[in-house]
Amino acid sequence: MSDLKKIKEEFSLKLKSKLNLSEINQVKSDLFGKDGLITSQFKKIGLIDDSERKKFASDLNLIKDELNELIDLKTKEIEIEHINTKLEKEKIDVTLPERNFSSGKIHPVSQTIDEISSIFSEIGFNVEEGPDVENEYNNFTALNTPDNHPARDMHDTFYLDEKKEKLLRTHTSPVQIRTMLKDKPPFKIIAPGRTYRSDSDQTHAPMFHQVEGLHIDKDINMGHLKGCLNYFIKEFFEVDKIKMRFRPSHFPFTEPSAEVDIGYEIRDGKIVIGEGDQWLEILGCGMVHPNVLKNVKVDPTKYQGYAFGIGIDRLAMLKYGINDLRSFFECDYRWLNHYGFDPVDVPTNYRGLSR
Ligand code: DAH
Q1: Which of 4, 194, 243, 309 gives 20 to 30 Å between its CA and that of 103?
Q2: Judgement on whether residues 217 and 330 belong to the same structural domain of the protein
Q3: Which atom of ligand 1 is the closest one to the Cα of 213?
Q4: What is the CATH number of the domain that holds 132?
Q5: 143 has a pLDDT exceeding 80
Q6: Are 188 and 266 members of one domain?
Q7: Same domain, 46 and 172
Q8: Does 154 lie in the same domain as 296?
Q9: Quick check: 36 pLDDT over 80?
C-alpha cells in the first residue's frame, strides 16, 4: 500500500473514533504541522519522477481535502455534543411545584396613614415627622399651654423624669412647633405619628395615632380650613357628599377653635358615613393662636393660618369596620391576616373601600 493510502486509512479511522477537542488538534498537527505527514508528502513532490508527479500531486490534494473535511465534521460534532450536555445540565424543570411562602400584611393603621398622606400630598401638603419623646416646651408651653394650665391635666401625660421636662408626646401638635422653628413661612404640612396618654378602654389606648395639619401663609382663613377638611373627608371615605359641622370648642393653641363632626347613620347594622342624622366627632381644629406664632418667631400681623389634629385609629375603625381599638395593638396574627392589606396588591394611594 502506498504511503498516501496508509495515511488516509489510518487517520480516517482515527477521525471516526471518539475524540475530544485537544485530540483533534493533535491530529491536525500530526497531519498538517511543520513536520506533519501530509506536509512532508507535499515536500516530496519535487523529487518525484516527471511521469508520476501529476498523479501523485492530485492524489495528495484529494486526500488532504478529505482529511480536512473529516476534521471539520468531527469538530462540529464535538461542539454540538458540548452544547447538548450544557443544555441538559442547566435545564429548568418547570413542572416542579413552587415553594410555599407566606407574606406579611400591612397593618390597617399603616394603610390608613398611607392613604391620609397620599390625599393631603395631592393638595400640596408635605409630610413632617417628630420624635415620640418630646420636651415639655414643644408639647405644651410653645403651644400656648403654660405650666398649671388646666389643659395639661386633661392630657394624662406620661412624664419620663421627675422634673417633668421629658415626656411621651400627648399629641402630634409639637411637630407644628418643630416645623416652624426650623423653616420660614409659608408652611403647609401634615405630621402623622404615634401619641401617648395614660388611658385605656374600648375606644382609648395608651398609645394611639394622630395626624397633625398646619397651613400658614399670608391670607389663610377659616374658609380654607373648611374646604380642606371637607375635601379630605370625602376622599378618605370615598363619598361624593359629606354632612359635616363645625362645633365651637376650645384648644389653647387655636382661636377660634372647633371640633368637627360628620354625619352618619346605621343601615342594616352597618355604619354609613356622610348621611343620616347622627353625628360623630372626628377631629379638632382652629386658626393658629397668635401666641403660638410669636413663640416660633413668625409675625402674626403678617402670617396666619389653620391647624387640625385627627385621630387616625378612629378613622381606620370607621372605614374598615373594626370596633375595638385595643385589637389594633394586640399583634394577633389571625386579626392581622383578616384586617391587614396585601403588600403586593395595594398601591400606596389605594383608597381601600373598593376592596
Ligand atoms: N392636639 C389636639 C388634641 O390632641 C388636637 C388638635 C386640635 C390639634 C386643634 C390641632 C388643633 O392642631 O388646631 O386633642
Answers
A1: 194
A2: yes
A3: 12
A4: 3.30.930.10
A5: yes
A6: yes
A7: no
A8: yes
A9: yes
Is residue 200 scored above 90 in pLDDT? no
Looking from the CA of residue 210, the nearest atom of ligand 1 is 4
Residue-range definition of the domain harbouring residue 244: 108-339
Q: State whether 81 and 168 are in the same domain.
A: no
Q: Is 144 exposed, middle or buried, given 0-12, 13-18 or 19+ CB atoms closer than 10 A? A: buried
CA of 173 to the centre of ligand 1 (A): 6
Site to substitute for ligand 1 among 253, 304, 306, most atoms within 8 A of C-beta: 253
Give the pLDDT of residue 295. Answer: 98
Give the nearest ligand 1 atom to 288 CA: 13
Give me 151's grid cell: 389643659
| CA gap 260, 275 in Å, rounded | 15
List all residues whose CB is within 6 A of at least one atom of ligand 1.
171, 173, 212, 251, 254, 284-286, 307-309
Among residues 59, 89, 119, which one ends one of the domains?
89
C-alpha of residue 341 to centroid of ligand 1, in Å: 29
Q: From ligand 1's centre to the CA of 33, what distance in Å?
A: 95
pLDDT at 308 (0 to 100)? 98
Is the same domain home to 51 and 127? no
C-alpha cell at 145: 399651654
Cα-based distances in Å from 278 to 144, 243, 248, 261, 349: 33, 10, 18, 9, 30
Ligand 1 centroid – CA 260 distance (Å): 11
Residue 170 CA: which ligand 1 atom is closest? Answer: 4
Is 218 in contact with 191 (CB distance < 8 Å)?
no
Minimum-distance ligand 1 atom for the alpha carbon of 306 = 13
Task: Provide the mean pLDDT of the chain.
Answer: 91
Mean pLDDT of 346-351: 52
pLDDT (tens digit per residue) in 254-278: 999 999 999 998 888 888 888 889 9
Tell me whether residue 353 is in a domain: no
CA of 324 to the centre of ligand 1 (A): 23
Do the strands 126-127 and 187-196 form a parallel or antiparallel pair, or are they unpaired? parallel
Closest CA to 284 of 193, 197, 176, 210: 210
pTM comes to 0.72
